[in-house]
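## retry 2 of 3
previous attempt timed out at serialization; input unchanged, resubmitting
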Amino acid sequence: MYCFYRTEYKGNEIPESDFEPTMQKARYWLQKAKRFYHIQPCEEKQEQMALCAIAEGIYHIERIKQGDISQKLSIGSVSCTSVLPQFPATPAQQEKELLRRAAGFLDICRCAKGGER
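## retry succeeded, writing output
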């Protein structure tokens, strides 16, 4: 799947060493989302693209939580580095961000009670 991520999805944010654990989290997240959202049957490639997008979102969120992502600004000889704000900060915002990423590749509709559209 890492080969697909690099060649088809054109991803470069997740290093190979972190890819498989992050992809496992993405697969789990998508399976969980299928319980709450109606996701139209799609081509396998679309779901793989969505998984890559979700994985990048998870990776990004985890790095922000760990304080690994910083923003560096340089103007001339002056440089400033600061840690980015906790965005998305709340679990609800994180879920919304991952759903937004998935919806770029999948047709997703909120399920009514009982799983019907």
